[in-house]
User: Fold ATP-binding cassette domain-containing protein from Polyangium spumosum.
Amino acid sequence: MRTRALTRVHDGGRDTRRALADVDLVVEEGEFVCVLGPSGSGKSTLLAVIGGLDRGYEGQVELFGEDLGRMSDAALARLRGERIGFVFQHFHLLHHLTVIENVTTPALFDPRADEEASRSRATKLLERLGLADRAFDTPAELSGGQRQRVAIARALLREPRLLLCDEPTGNLDAETGARIIELFEELHREERLTIVAVTHEERLARAATRILRLHEGRVDTKEHAP
Ligand SMILES: Nc1ncnc2c1ncn2[C@@H]1O[C@H](COP(=O)(O)OP(=O)(O)OP(=O)(O)O)[C@@H](O)[C@H]1O
Assistant:
């Protein structure tokens, strides 16, 4: 993933905000990057842009060697579905579906996906995340931390190459948070999954291979080892 002179201005009428300003960034395949920075520094905006969800940017974003600006909406949607997993700050679970149905939703949009295989992978992910016994509950019956883990399982269903997470351990108690961090470390080490995670949490940042700091939409040029 590479950005060149990436700028994102949110036009709020009189109140125009520059959420990202001239960001030049390279994330190599297999990296585990944590993005830190104060509230409003542009972290969520950065994830949305590099994940192809927000196309209102200036500059260039390259993902898996392709220039996002040159892709059609359909091609970008396909790329997102096949290669990117998102864990959103507010989970975005579907409340009328069960946990296992939520986890398998990404496969619904792929006509080639095998329903049995998706369900079996979803079950394994839920086991790995300590939620096997909640598969048939609805999100409303879960705690915030459990919903968070459902969102993580869903993001991993399609075996993405890039995992983008906004505060993935934000709502979790220490033990569950540690379990998620271990899972990220495993995925990074064993499957060479590229992870970019926005966080305020020291524990998660320590697990990363690189720390990136944002300040008022700019990347702090002194990059830090964790
Ligand atoms: N849809 C939007 N419309 C207008 N302004 C926006 C929008 N989204 C973000 N912004 C503004 O862009 C700036 C960066 O927001 P962003 O959500 O990326 O920050 P953040 O670092 O993720 O913050 P937090 O840690 O509080 O989640 C802020 O000033 C915010 O008010």
